[in-house]
Amino acid sequence: MLLLSRALMSSLPITLADRCMALAAAFAETSIDQANALLVALPNDMRQSLRLDRNTLANALAHSNHTSAIVVHQVLDSLAALPPAASAPAFHALDALTQATKPFSQRQAGACLARALRNHGDCFLAIMDTLADAPRREILPLPRSASRAAAMRALAATDPLTAHRLAHALQSRSPTAVLDTMTDAPYDALTHIWRLLPDALRQSVPGDRYALASAAAAPGGADALMQTLRAWEEDNDPLPLLALRMLIDDNPDRRAQGVAVLARRPRQAVALLPLFQDDLQTALTSDPVIAFASADMPPLHPSAPAQRRRRSQRGRAFDDERRCMARADSVTMKAMEPGQEGLP
Fold first, then answer.
1. Burial class (CB in 10 A: 0-12, 13-18, 19+), 129
2. DSSP-derived 3-state class of residue 145
3. How many domains does the chain have?
4. In angstroms, rounded to a whole number, what is the distance separating the alpha carbons of residues 80 and 235?
């Protein structure tokens, strides 16, 4: 009840995202019948704010896109049939979307809708297809290429939130935004994301390959690490390269994602371990899957001065690599200005 009160009292200084997440938490693991029983116990004003008039909402969406209200109503009926942990925040986000008049507010509502329907991509796309062009562009701006637009919709069918984030990252043409999207994406979406990137971003997201290898390799091992990564990339397998880029980052979420990616590739993780500096070896072998896969490897116990020296070398190389990535952001923006490549 407290979660519902927090979610529905929009006068409080909390965001739409906060309210939607509170609704999802309040209805977690409840059936539609259980949710209805909970609604009956609520005060009238709270109950009415949750039980939106579907006819009014359908008419608002249909009017904005010249779509038949009957078609929109069918889509909303499908939404209402979803588990309440998804449907309640999704309806709340849709209601906010119909009232939003500025692109930023439409994008915020779209992000909340995508999060609520993250496991219900078909319903997300059905809703998208009822919207007017302006809000649809804020929720999921599609590439101009028909094949890549279809690929983006395919990603949205499996993970609407990742598709929403990636679409805006591509629109901003920012390697950092793409890397943020990959950091939060599930493993199965990473290769799909890579295929959607234009060539310029495929180069700038990992950054300079040799700087990357130098930042991670054991002393004298940068060339061997570079050759190993290049061989996998030439085999159309970019994930070890991306995992390494995340592993050397100072953001703990990126580092954790780098470990998680290689844990799904234990053979590659074992191949990389001898080439890495000791702190990266420690980070990887802290994962039980990688630890088990590498159990037969001889342990490496560098001296304390050697550990400090390697971390210092890696820090300097990483600073150089970060500066490369900052420059790449600027170069990518210039290389993809409107009238040249734009959204692929």
1. middle
2. coil
3. 2
4. 45
Q: What is the DSSP string of 8-44?
A: H-TTSS--HHHHHHHHHHHTTT--HHHHHHHHHTS-H
Burial classification of residue 214, based on how many CB atoms lie within 10 Å of its CB (0-12 exposed, 13-18 middle, 19 or more buried): buried
Residue whose structure tokens are 């996998």 = 232
Alpha helices (H) in 174-238, listed in sequence order: 175-184, 187-196, 199-204, 209-216, 222-234
Query: 298 is in which domain, residue-wise?
Result: 209-335
In a domain, 34, yes or no: yes
| Chosen domain end from 92, 109, 139 | 139
Residue with token string 């889509």: 75
Please give the chain's pLDDT, 344 residues, in tens. Answer: 445 555 555 555 578 998 899 889 988 988 988 887 877 777 676 666 666 778 888 888 876 666 777 888 899 999 999 999 999 999 999 999 999 989 999 999 999 999 999 999 999 999 999 888 889 999 999 999 999 999 999 999 999 999 999 999 999 999 999 999 999 999 999 999 999 999 999 999 999 999 999 999 999 999 999 999 999 988 889 999 999 999 999 999 999 999 999 999 999 999 999 999 999 999 999 999 999 999 887 765 454 344 434 444 454 555 555 555 555 555 444 544 444 334 44
How many angstroms separate the first and last alpha carbons of the chain? 47
3-state secondary structure of 293: helix
Locate tokens 């570079």: which residue? 226
Q: Pick the last residue of a domain from 139, 165, 185.
A: 139
Contact, 113 vs 104, CB < 8 A? Answer: no
Within a domain: residue 191? no
CB 139 within 8 A of CB 90: no
Task: Considering only CA atoms, give the Rg of the chain.
Answer: 24
Q: Which residue, chain included where needed, has tokens 């297809």? A: 129
Write down the pTM of the prediction: 0.81
The residue assigned the tokens 């805006």 is 168
Contacts of 260 (CB under 8 A, 6+ apart): 187, 287
Q: Are 157 and 188 in contact (CB under 8 A)?
A: no
